[in-house]
Amino acid sequence: MSDFHRILHRPILAATTAINLGIRTHAALSRVVIEAFKVLPSIRQDQDEFINFARSQYGLTVKGRTVDPITLLLIKLLFHNSAENADMRRKLGQITTALNFLDQNRGSIPAEHAGRFLHDCGGISGCVKAWRKANSPDNPHREEQKVRAIQSYVAALPQIGTTTHYADHQCTTINDVKDSQTLEALAQSPGRVLIVGDIDEQFNLTNLRVVERDQDEIDRLLTRKAAQVTKTGSNDNQPMKEAI
Q: How many structural domains comprise the chain?
């Protein structure tokens, strides 16, 4: 289980500094984005546990549709101590978008250069504008970026059947710690599992990975797709496309 108190120490400290300054200085808010950027990979490795952590420890959740629920939840957690009368909705949205832009370009940004990259982009507002431009519908590279983002995400998911060796035993990896890292855990926790895989030239399914174990999320997906099929009167495997 990840020690989120340790992981989030520096980002929370940066956010607390910004709050103590009345959230007025751009430098203080930029420091929050940079520190959040540094810890985001660790959070993504165990994001289900992070969601539970944010809900149980701080009463925070993300509802509705958003570009990246994890980045938004992270920023909400960092600023959970801000004054109730402070109008933070717009500001947190901008900070989250700036973080999304940095994360989108993570492959070309060493963590130690994140501050310089943010500065060269024109700060938080510059990153927001750059993110909107990069993700606008008329961007010819948007689909390629989307495919690469999906490929990177799937590649980070442990493959079903992967054997991990320990000092005194071995276990088969599924997805995360809460699965007890065993194939038998699938049978021990009845319910639907959303899986993604590759199809080879012989039409075999390979590289199977568990994408989602949240029963409510899967039920919402299936309910939405079932409603679409009922409305159009056809079933063209759209659930497969969305699942991937």
A: 2
